Amino acid sequence: MVTSTTKLFSLILILLLHTFFTPFSFSSSAVSAVGVNYGTLGNNLPPPKKVAQLLQSTLINKVKIYDTNPEILEAFSNTGIDLIIAVENSRVANISTDTSAADQWLSTRVLPFIPATSVVAIAVGNEYLTTTDDGVPNPDALVRAMRNLHAVLVARGLDRKIKVTTPHSMAVLASSFPPSSATFAPNIAETISALLDFLVDTGSRFMVNAYPYFAYRDNPETVNLQYALLGNTTRVRDPKGYVYTNMLDAQIDAVRSAINSLGYGNQTIKITVSESGWPSKGDVGDIAATKDNARTYNSRLIQRAQSNKGTPMRPRDNIEIFVFSLFNENKKKGGATERNFGLFDGDGSKVYDVDLSCEFCGGTATTSFGFGLKETNGGGGARAGPSVWCVAKPHAEEKVLQAVLDFCCGPGGVDCREIYNESGDCFEPNKVVAHASYAMNSYYQMHGRNYWNCDFKGTGLVTFTDPSRQAGITALAS
Ligand SMILES: *[C@@H]1O[C@H](CO)[C@@H](O)[C@H](O)[C@H]1NC(C)=O
Ligand SMILES: *[C@@H]1O[C@H](CO)[C@@H](O)[C@H](O)[C@H]1NC(C)=O
Ligand SMILES: *[C@@H]1O[C@H](CO)[C@@H](O)[C@H](O)[C@H]1NC(C)=O
Ligand SMILES: *[C@@H]1O[C@H](CO)[C@@H](O)[C@H](O)[C@H]1NC(C)=O
Q1: Domain 32-356: assigned CATH number
Q2: Domain X8 spans what residues (predicted)?
């Protein structure tokens, strides 16, 4: 058991766990991952079961959908992929009426699928405060609906696992430039304040859909294309001294400033980019909507999602990102770009080459992802070194983790001396979640790194962060 490889795992794990418990990187550095939006407005899309299976062989481990499609909820059960589900805009008013409406929604649409399906958040509406699709929105209904859903989750003991939030468009801002002086549109500021109170109280994230593409499209003369494309050659200076090399960072910081301007600067409200992407095709005149640009933007976006980088204003705030979108959706209304944000076509072929294997994590043989294509390097075994790790979810219930730990170190056959013995290399930090991570990872590596070997009643999480990229480990690994 104590081969040099397992030793290396242990060493890596110590450092991995160390980053886990460093105050500023808690639950971010070790679990940085890539989310994707899975919209279904197409008549040629593969069945959800197939989508779920294939996503499991990629670095994507969070999927956001736009409804509670039961077929999708079922398909993602026991996959290790977290799901963000949604209340459609048209249902927000109903759920805002009282908690029984919220409970009816939850119990008919969500409860049948959990815990097998890992639902981690409910997005209430989409761009609800700025949409005009469903008539004039009633801003008050939004926060009431969110409160009702949260109350129902509390009553059922699910509020720690399932967070309630709502994705906004950038149009909630009165202005976004310069980033440090951005504010919310005055007519919705009061609603946003109520919303921020809710997010602080419930530990939920502020979601924003941010598209440098549209900013470029509307001002191609003034916006530098590389700046919009997440490049790093342009420098845009904010009057407060922040220097921006790309527009997405500036957009995120504009949202941050607007939040601060309402007096929430001292609260820890995390920002999630719930949608961002670039279309590969458009109508005549959509000159930037090309496959090359889409590949450039989305490759960089995926790299960014996996990095632990913050923004100039908050360098240590890891930004959670959901790429828009998984598929081209041929039945979407609007201009051609709307139907061409996908990484994949309906038939499952790549629209352009974006590597979703763990290449960006470094070190591993690349797998190719594509519907109808077999994964080239199969289920593990022959890989050069560990490219994936299994760790305990930071907020998993301690009781369950203890049971998992007991199983791994007992019937599971893991050698747990390093964590049980006070002088063991992995005894510190002496926390159940840390010890469980050690044991779960050992078990996962022993059994060939199949996703089902990292389920552990929903408490396990496959992470692709390559510890050899972190300072100090390269030497140990070589
Ligand atoms: C909310 O929707 C549910 C399910 O469609 C329905 O039974 C209920 O009557 C609605 N409640 C209100 C207040 O509209
Ligand atoms: C800028 O981007 C290039 C190409 O992606 C990369 O090689 C380089 O390291 C980047 N420079 C900085 C300062 O991030
Ligand atoms: C925020 O925190 C700082 C430092 O702790 C304090 O000086 C400042 O007054 C606080 N601001 C608000 C709005 O609470
Ligand atoms: C703990 O480890 C030390 C050093 O390897 C060893 O001498 C000791 O016997 C171990 N204790 C137990 C309880 O296994």
Answers
A1: 3.20.20.80
A2: 388-474
